[in-house]
Structure prediction request, 449 residues.
Amino acid sequence: MPASTLDCKDEERCILRLARYGISSHAGFRHPASLEQYGSETPIHSDTPVPSVVRGFLMAGLLLLKSRTDHQANAEDLFADTRMPFGDHLEDLRVHLWRALIGFGGALLLVFALDFAGYATGTKIGIGKPVMAFIAKPVEEELERFYRRRVERVLTNLERDPALERANWPTPFYRIGFSRDQFLAALQKEPASGVNNFPRPRLEDEGQTGNELESKGLAVERIYKFWVRAEEPLREAAYRQEAERQVGRRPILATMGMMEGMMVYLQVAMACGIVLACPWIFWQAWSFVAAGLYPHEKRPVLLYLPLSIGLLAAGILVCQVWIIPKAVETLLGFNEWLDLEPELRLKEWLGFALWMPLAFGLSFQTPLVMLLLERLGLFMIDDYRRRRRLAWFFMAVIAGIVTPPFDVMSMLFLWVVLGVLYELGILCCGWSCKVSGTKDEVQADPRIS
Prediction:
């Protein structure tokens, strides 16, 4: 068959047409690759005999062409190495979830081990218990200030308030026992150092029981019993109030059930385990998700994730250092104004102390949310600027909802911070648009290859 009959325009079409011609002349042979996708061609006489050697060369050329075409397609396909069936994706997800759970379990065991080590050694080693003390510290400090202000108020109004003045009347006489030997030493005008350092009298049965609380007393001839009374019992109680709280009811968070303390500790320990295992958990999540992302989709995540974590930590720190102490002071101020005794539960305070910092941390993500909406095309910079007053109004509403009621200072503080972050988001959107515009100009310039 003459070469002109083939009328080929390029090498690939020649190979395909010759292969088609050779295959059609071989009875009973069908190649698995369909050639219909290459379009209609000049009719070829199928009855023209083609030698077997030629047919072999043509088949080899066809396979080489198919291999080269597949290689080019795979080179352009970024997911050629990671593409898998849906079942394999589920299996990969299961593997990453189990790895994340194992990492969380290891971190939780570390929390328990360190807390037990601190308990066994009597030191402050640990994670869960110190975190509980850190969470409870603001409210316990404010409780101490609450009771200290009450003492100061009683001492200030002692001579002006009839009820306090009546409570401060002298008490009835009651007896107090003195050691006879020490009393005689004082009457003989011995030095104060000797009288003050007089040995403690031993009770009659103290040597037998070894327990001072179970002892009956000294011999009658060794004790002088004097009648005394408290001239200002209320003032005396106010002066002793700080010391008595250390051995009596302390101004700390209270539990209303036997299981409440343990359950709260387990919640705090689990939260600490999640925080410790966060890098590992995020890495497992990223390993699963990143396989389906293009390189230009991975870059923003790697760029903005550290900034998001920094803003989250800044919001939590601001709330823990500034907002929570002011909020507790304001709320306890109402108890003081209404003359009520505060009874703060550990479980309720834990929810408040964990929710408030999280809310502040999420509110600090405002610039990144604005930038994301601008990148998606949902909002433009002009929209942010044109609706600035409406945005400030909604930020004031959010600040009023997040902060405790009637805490005006905390609300104003959060409102101003959100406003500053909103303006920062506008600047970030403007900078991002300038950078994107510069890149588009560079790519569109034909002089730049």
Residues 3-76 form one domain.
